[in-house]
Every structure is written in C-alpha cells, then in structure tokens.
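Hi all, long-time lurker, first post. I run a small reading group and we've been trying to get comfortable going from sequence to structure in the token notation. Rather than ask abstract questions, I figured I'd post a concrete chain and ask someone more experienced to write out its structure so we can walk through it together at our next meeting. Sequence below, copied exactly:
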Amino acid sequence: MTIEKKTEGTTAVLFLNGWMDTQNAPLLAEALSNLDPGTGHLVLDLSALDYTSSAGIRQIVAAYKQMKGALTLRHVSPEVVNVLRMMGLEKRLNIES
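-- Answer (accepted) --
Happy to help. Here is the structure in token form:
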C-alpha cells in the first residue's frame, strides 16, 4: 500500500492505494501520527484502495478517534462499505461515494 498526502488549508487528504492488511496497515498509523497538529479535518480517499482487512478497519477507527469525528471516507468501494456496514460503523463515519 502507498499513501499520498495533500493538504488543503486545515484539511489533510490521504490517498490510499493498494491493499491495507496486517502487514501494511501500520503505514496508515504512521501517516496519522505525522499529521500536522493544526489539522482540523481528515479525508481518507479510498478510490484506489482495493482491499482492507480488519487491521485496516482498526486504523480507520483510530483515525476517527484521533480526529474526534472530523473524518470523511471518500470514494469508498462497495466491498469496503459492506465491511463497514457489517461492523456497524457506517452510522458513525461520514462516507462519501
């Protein structure tokens, strides 16, 4: 998985590409720890994310907690939305298609 970061004012956009599984979910944890302290909103663009395991979902939840809810998931595939729905997270997360 690769992660590209773009900053738009106080919004950070992370573009995730590839598979987010047990081996590379820590890349998202690292990207989260490197966010500017002034970041007021985080967008995870998942348009190029092919797969996420439960380890990836844990990192998404960690991002939600870190941002105190100021998190948007953008361009989420139906497969990932289904996983979020099964876990009851789609009601808490701001998901854009």
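A couple of things your group might point at:
Strands lie at 2-8, 11-20, 41-52, 71-74, 94-96.
The mean pLDDT is 94.
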